[in-house]
Amino acid sequence: MNEDKITKTSEISVNVGTNENNVPVRMIWSAQDGDIEKAEASAMFLSMWDPKEKNTMKIDLWTKDLSIEEMKQFFHQTLVTMADTFEKATGEKNITEDLRDYCYHFAEKMEILPEND
């Protein structure tokens, strides 16, 4: 049995509308397997690993109307997700605890921690 044989493909698409200065003003994305159809987004980070070049290819986009507060939240949530993904992919618990500590520090410095009641 060959586990490397492709048995299915799935498409993820991002449509970016820009203004006359080529600044993103609207992003719409769809993901077949996620049942997401033409969902609005205000920011995205896309990183893909190039195994031949051993380097990351990336696209970072955000719309002109994304607020600074929203960017802080987006960045924080992305960092937390990266820690979770790294632990899931590698099993490295010690460093992911450090990453999560940094995420807390980031949220504290950006003043985006929820207030305690």
From TrEMBL:
This is Gliding motility protein GldC. It comes from Brumimicrobium oceani. It holds the Pfam family GldC-like. InterPro entries: Motility-assoc_prot_GldC.
